[in-house]
Amino acid sequence: MRPTPRLAILLASGFLALGGCILTPGGVQLLELHFGLSETVVSGAESLVHQQLLPAEVVLKKHQVRVSGLLSGSASQPERIDVLVTAEDAGNGKVYDRFRLKVELRPDGGFSATGKWRKNIRPDTLLKVFVTPVGGDLPEGAEVDLCVHMTRSKAALRDLLDCAPGTLLLPPAFELELDSVGFHELFSEPGAFPKDLGPTAGRELVVALRDVTRPDQQCPDEIPWDGCATVDWDDVAGTRNVPPGGGYFDNRIRVTTESGPLDLYLNRELGLSREQDDDFALQ
Amino acid sequence: MGGSAREWTTVLDENIVPGSRYVLELAMTKWQDPAVVIGYEVFVR
After folding, report:
1. pLDDT given at position A4
2. Per-residue H/E/C for A19-65
């Protein structure tokens, strides 16, 4: 698992059951917000494992915050970790809310704890999550898979599965240019196959995507300017988030087979393929 | 993509390790309001 700035914004599925979002003059107030990400703890001291700039349309009203995850890659793990969550003004770096969670580690390295914002979290806020081992050290390269759920519903929080993927929020782009949020938005979604999966050779692996916000939306061409969400395949060098030099996005799922890691790329003609979709002619 | 699911599939020629982790990496764009929620599923059938 590589350290990556590719951060994911997800909405927990319970958000949908609660009716979605509330439109406010300042933007969209989310009932639930879920960040799922993978980062690497690089030292035994306090490490910044996640930072996320909330999109301009996101407002959080004193949400409960659930931090859960998994520590791996450490032969002798610490007894517990301290998790510090801060909200900064993205403009001047001033911290205007923060809380610290003391988290016991389960034998498998899993952890979960709940805190709460005391203040409303405004748009354009930079969220940061720091992790500090307590009662032990972390060797260089130890990994933390982290999920941060924010919700206004304590009941929803109780029912929330740790690190449960399933939905992601795709913010709107207002300019198809270099730095517009929502344009070539990158997602890196961790998940796990069932422990009772059984043999899979000869069976079909499926990656399915759907716009659950607008089940009636018709998207014959799947191009951004017809109002549809699109999977992006490539763009010219220098455009937002386009891989340097190549121009093609990975759009892949990395799984672990009995013979090792396997990358399967979403391919417009071949389904899931060992070959990356790099056919510009299909644009 | 619209309301109906867009699927990408392949027939596996080896076994995925049960309980193992996966990472799904995507690049996506949504032009102008509203933000949308994209549901995704990864499964073997």
Report:
1. 26
2. CCEEEECCEEEECEEEEEEEEECCCCCCEEEEEEECCCCEEEECCEE
3-state secondary structure of A14: helix
Q: Please count the helices (runs of H) and the strands (runs of E) in chain A.
A: 2, 20
Distance CA(B39)–CA(B24), nearest Å, equals 13
For the beta sheet containing B36-44, the strands, ordered from the edge strand earlier in sequence to the opposite edge, are: A167-170, B36-44, A204-211, B6-11
pLDDT in tens, A141-191: 677 767 677 777 666 555 444 444 466 777 777 766 666 777 888 888 877
Cis previous bond, A107, omega within 30: no
ipTM over 0.85: yes
A:107-126 residues touching chain B, CB 8 A cutoff? none
- pLDDT of the residue at A60: 73
pTM: 0.55
Residue B40 identity:
Y
- Smallest Cβ distance to A206: which of B7, B32, B37? B7
- Find the closest chain B residue to A55 by CA distance: B35
Q: How far apart are CA A215 and CA A29, in angstroms?
A: 21
